[in-house]
Automatic annotation (TrEMBL):
Matching Pfam families: DUF934
Entry protein name: DUF934 domain-containing protein
Upper lineage: Bacteria, Pseudomonadati, Pseudomonadota, Gammaproteobacteria, Cellvibrionales
Length: 173
């Protein structure tokens, strides 16, 4: 089973990504959906929400970097998992989307970073609200152990964040 970093530990990835046609109104695949927890694109969630809610297993939603937190809106509270896909490691839009999901929409579930991000970004991703990191097949368990150390690259941050809403100068006063 594939592995990922979740809540500061290596865990099994028990979710499966479902990729579909670009047209969200295209019905879900005619073959039965896999059993277990699935993550569907935002457009599919929006077009087929009621059908998906009828499944026995849990549903998560993934957003591309071009899809804003506002497009998911209040639906965020209904979901156990939201995954944000990074198309390239230099694309920082996922950082902003994560923070908005946590702070504006009150999302408390698993917020997963997927795609092209690098180990050096983990500390900052965590500060924006991510609590799960899916490197895909590019990292084996040994590499994941090393990557976990990056979650604590710095002992403190100056700015406010999801994980520390009080700035450093106020904490030191």
């Amino acid at each position: 089973m594939p592995k990922l970093i979740k809540d500061g530990a290596i865990a099994d990835n028990t979710w499966q990504f479902i990729d579909t046609a670009e047209d969200a109104n295209t019905p879900l695949p005619t073959a039965p959906l896999p059993t277990g927890n699935i993550i569907v694109p935002l457009a599919v969630w929006q077009a087929q929400k009621e059908t998906l809610k009828g499944r026995r297993n849990e549903i998560g939603v993934w957003l591309n970097s071009t899809e804003l937190a506002d497009t998911l809106g209040s639906d965020a509270a209904e979901l156990p998992l939201i995954a944000l896909r990074f198309p390239v490691f230099m694309d920082g839009r996922g950082f902003s989307t994560a923070r908005l999901l946590r702070e504006r929409y009150g999302f408390t579930g698993e917020l997963r970073a997927c795609g092209y991000f690098i180990r050096d970004q983990l500390f900052y991703l965590k500060r924006c609200g991510f609590n799960a990191f899916d490197f895909g097949e590019q990292y084996d368990e040994n590499e994941l152990e090393k990557a976990m150390q990056s979650l604590n690259d710095f002992s403190d941050g100056y700015q406010t964040s999801v994980d520390q809403p009080v700035p450093l100068f106020r904490r030191r006063a």
